[in-house]
Amino acid sequence: MTADARPPRSRRVLIRVMPVVFRVINVPMRFVLGLPISTPLGKRLNARPPDRTKTGRHYRQPISYVRDEQTLLTPGGGRWKLNLVAGQPTHVHLRGRDLLLRPELVRDPAEVERLLAVMSAKNPMVGRFVPIQKGADGHYDPDRLNLAIQHGFRIVRWSANDAAAREAIIR
User: Fold this and answer.
1) Per-residue pLDDT reduced to its tens digit, 20-69
2) CA-based Rg of the chain, rounded to a whole angstrom?
3) Domain range annotation of the chain
4) Alpha carbon of 114 to those of 79, 118, 125, 145: distances in Å?
């Protein structure tokens, strides 16, 4: 790997430090996001229980989201998305309610870039957690975007399974 292909030093430090930070922070976040009431944290985070873990234990994984019309968009760079099956309803705890939502794992580079732009416009913090750099023209570097997609990066587009879930998404 050439020096030019490596991420900047600050990004390499984040790659090593953030998993540890997230493990510590996720414990209280899971509790707050799992409450049966809507909390201020629930405006940008929801909790999704994995379908199965290696240990057989179930826990809630805090994930960020951005609302886009009648769907929720989530950057899917972590391992949690590996338990998702496209189109198969899965439980999500959103603003104090347990809902069934259908995930769609978006991997088309043009659509991923478009959705990242939508997400960044609605929540500027998305850019801090998405490992793809933008070029001088403001677009994501196509080579890095394709590389990230090859290594498993996806956008998860969550759709409502029924009228009650649709109402919870749009409110």
Assistant:
1) 766 666 666 666 666 665 655 555 555 555 544 556 665 567 777 888 88
2) 16
3) 3-170
4) 23, 6, 16, 12
The structure tokens listed for 23 are 């493990």
Q: For 140-167, write each residue's pLDDT tens digit.
A: 888 889 988 998 899 999 998 787 777 7
The CATH code of domain 3-170 reads 2.30.110.10
pLDDT single digits (tens) 114-133? 999 998 888 888 877 777 77
How far is it, in rounded angstroms, from Cα 106 to Cα 11?
24
Q: What size, in residues, is the chain?
A: 171
Helix or strand (DSSP H, E) at 62: strand 61-64
Cα distance between residue 122 and residue 156, in whole Å: 16
Report how far Cα 11 is from the mean position of its chain's Cα atoms. 19
What is the Cα–Cα distance from 6 to 28, expressed in whole angstroms?
34
3-state secondary structure of 115: helix
